Amino acid sequence: MDALTGESNIVYDARGLVEPNADVPKISSIDGEKAEFDAQNLTTRQINLELRWLINEQGITDVTVKNPGAKHSLGVGLLTRCKITFDGSLGYFGCGIIDGPEVHVKGRVGWSACENMMSGVVVVEGNAGSLTGAAMRGGDLIVKGRLGARTGIDQKGGTILTMGSVGSMTGFMMQRGRQVICEDAGHGLGDSMYDGIIYVGGKVKSLGIDCVPGEWTDADTEFIDRKFRIYELGTPPTFQKFVCGKKLYNYDNLEASERKLVL
Amino acid sequence: MCGIAGIIYKDGHHNVGQDMTRMLQSMKHRGPDSTGYALYAPPTENVVLRYTTANTTTPRDFEFQDRLKRNRAEAERRIQGLGAKIVNCEQETDYAFRLTLDYKGELKALADQIEDISDCEVLSLGHSLEIIKDLGDAETVCAQYGLEQFQGTHAIGHVRMATESDVDISGAHPYWAYPFSDIAVVHNGQLTNYFQWRRRLERNGHRFNSECDSEIIAVYLAEKMSEGLSLEEAMHESLEELDGVFTYICVTADALGVAKDEMAAKPLVLFEGENMIALASEEMAIRAIIDHEIDTYDPYEKEVLVWTR
């Protein structure tokens, strides 16, 4: 009758973490400033500890992680300029809150990749799940496959570029930055966006509230061409441009000093 | 949170019990309360009945063991009373049984007779479907019920983090679409018009074993199919009529389908290979059964996908 007791076998440490082992595995093969390790039999915590040990303590600038196995939360919180290659796919919350690294994911990434990314570059060869680049603040996120729903929700800066399509509510409450979507966009594109620009190369199922077509300028052409050139993405398609209509909220023309008087 | 998974082979039967266990075990963190399987073996002439004679909420008093024995004896007496011949009986735990029956009568009558006994619940009834669910993680349930060797053509599974109803066997997924044989559902999400649909379906003569909103989906789909809709059409209709945030997987004797609500707020990752389709709330579940690099994607909002064997 053991199965009816409702008890689980998960072991928690005193802080409630599922993985109590905080020892750095130190299993990498190191060659000068390059290192490589196999993540097959490591936990999420061990993989991230190994990455930090290599980058912060061993002075490694180029790390390859073999067999990441779609584990969650890999490569998060890295605040150093370095190169990291994931030779496979990542699960949820991969590369979140990074500031500086240049990351190459050879597979796909799950939900909420690059959440709160501050700077650096992330290139994903495959598809990415929903909420990619949520609250992103800077850097370039390049996805060569397609993206899920709510891409770049609450985006505050940086660029999200996908060679494929995106799901519904992409750019929801976007505040700054740019999104470049080479194929189609789902329902509610740019809903309630405050600012920023969304370029779409395919069809848009529907625009969200206060998202309107924008006027194309030379700066747009220069921006698109530059990104395609840097990341060797070929010839860009013809894009439509979408911006905030600025009718949803009470935008005013008060100067900062005047606002002080009013408030 | 909960985790759901599904797998369907295009090239005959495989060790589906083992594969589903690996998928569910890798998502243990999404739901440690209970684990459930709906496994499909090649169809047989006989009827396979899985039922329990107690639940976690059944009082564990001094008479508990006696009640288990009495319930089992009464269930078998009623089964035989309906003209069914018990070809084989396997007792998997103190309270869970798998019966193979030679029975040509109405399945609903059989299910009703058993569930009329206090604390007894029919988990599944059909020519192909077998539902197994219990508390604990996938490896625990697999070992307890000997699923490692289960050969089948397709399956769905669920790891549950209970949020809206008790941690017990009747609250665990998958749900059988009583009284329609060989249809089952696993679900991740919440239905906000649960009571509305429950009342409607109850008025049509259906009964529900749990307070869990997911049970509605199985019966809803089965009823639509009994009205002449295909599985795919019924699933499309569900996206209009069921309200809430949800992703669910439905299986019949020869098909497996997945549906996402219009917000696509519950995750699902999909892999379509040459010989199999595997889908799960998290990619690591798919990778638990595939040892090479694969291309996966998330279905979009309001998407319905169905595969037939």
Rg of chain B from C-alpha positions? 18 Å
Q: Tell me about the biggest sheet of chain A?
A: 12 strands, mixed
N-to-C order of helices and strands of chain B: EHEEHEEHEEHEEEHHHEEEEHE
Taken from the alpha-carbon principal axes, the silhouette of chain B is globular
Question: Main β-sheet of chain B, in a few words?
Answer: 6 strands, antiparallel
According to DSSP, the number of beta strands of chain A is: 12
* Low-pLDDT segments, ≥5 res of chain A: 1-10
Helical segment tally of chain B? 8
**End-to-end C-alpha gap of chain A:** 66 Å
What is the helical fraction of chain B, as a range of percent?
25-40%
What is the β-strand count of chain B? 15
What is the arithmetic mean of pLDDT of chain A? Answer: 91
Tell me what you see in this structure:
The complex is a heterodimer of chains A (263) and B (309). Chain A has helices spanning 44-57, 218-230, 256-262; strands spanning 29-31, 34-38, 62-66, 83-87, 99-105, 119-124, 140-143, 156-162, 176-181, 197-200, 211-213, 240-244. A 12-stranded mixed β-sheet of chain A has the order 1-2-3-4-5-6-7-8-9-10-12-11, with helices on one face. By secondary structure, chain A is of the alpha/beta class. The longest helix of chain A is centred in the first third of the chain and has 14 residues, at 44-57. The radius of gyration of chain A is 21 Å and the shape is globular. Chain B has 309 residues and is of the alpha+beta class. Chain B folds into 2 domains: 3-43 and 128-308, 4-Layer Sandwich (Glutamine Phosphoribosylpyrophosphate, subunit 1, domain 1), CATH 3.60.20.10; 49-125, Alpha-Beta Plaits (2-Layer Sandwich). Chain B is built from 8 helices and 15 strands. In chain B, the strands form 3 sheets. Chain B has a 6-stranded antiparallel β-sheet with strand order 7-2-8-1-14-13. In chain B, helix 6 packs across helix 7 (231-241). Chain B starts with a strand and ends with a strand. The chains are: A alpha/beta (263), B alpha+beta (309). Chain A binds chain B through residues 1-6, 8-10, 18, 69-72, 88-89, 91-92, 106-108, 110-111, 126-127, 129-130, 145-146, 148-149, 167-169, 186-187, and chain B through 28-29, 32-33, 56, 60, 93-95, 134-137, 140-141, 144, 167, 262-265, 267, 269, 282-284, 286-287, 293, 295-298, 300-301.
